[in-house]
């Protein structure tokens, strides 16, 4: 099992509340489902979720992890929120670019750069949540929700004219 630690810290961005979520280790098949639930909980609890995903100490993420990031973005956006990524290592940034994440989620080099861009954030006077090692999930959670795909309606069929009498 790969080791991942995730810590949550409250921030204030101008007048908005935000969460800094720091990832340390490897996010993969062995731990992503369990850890993803924590992020979904944060999105659910915030009226307008503003999440800063600090990937500066994330060493690896698999495709399922990337799927969760896109779903977190979709869920936050649906509530007029946003997600930003901070400081990904070159290998992580390359993956994010290849799959197109960087076209929908803003990536900042540092937390200070993100703070400046997002409204002069300061860290709130709240102690950060303790970083705890991931525990194995008791049962497999549901997969990330999928965004519905629009399908064009079928062309109308013509009704034959009634026979002339």
Helix content: 25-40%
Order of helices and strands: EEHEHEHEHEE
Task: Quote the average pLDDT.
Answer: 81
CATH superfamily: STAS domain
Give a verbal description of the structure.
The chain has one domain (4-133): STAS domain (Transcription Regulator spoIIAA). It is built from four helices and seven strands. It is globular and about 40 Å long. The chain has 165 residues and is α/β, with parallel strands linked by helices. Strands 1, 2, 3, 4, 5, 6 and 7 form a seven-stranded mixed β-sheet that branches. Helix 1 (32-45) packs parallel to helix 2 (63-78).
Entry summary:
The chain has 165 residues and is of the alpha/beta class. The chain has helices spanning 32-45, 63-78, 90-98, 111-117; strands spanning 4-13, 16-27, 50-61, 82-86, 106-108, 122-123, 132-133.
Highlighted features:
alpha/beta, Transcription Regulator spoIIAA, 7-stranded mixed sheet, single chain, 7 strands
Produce the secondary structure layout.
Elements: E1 4-13, E2 16-27, H1 32-45, E3 50-61, H2 63-78, E4 82-86, H3 90-98, E5 106-108, H4 111-117, E6 122-123, E7 132-133
Parallel strand pairs: 2-3, 3-4, 4-5
Antiparallel strand pairs: 1-2, 1-6, 1-7
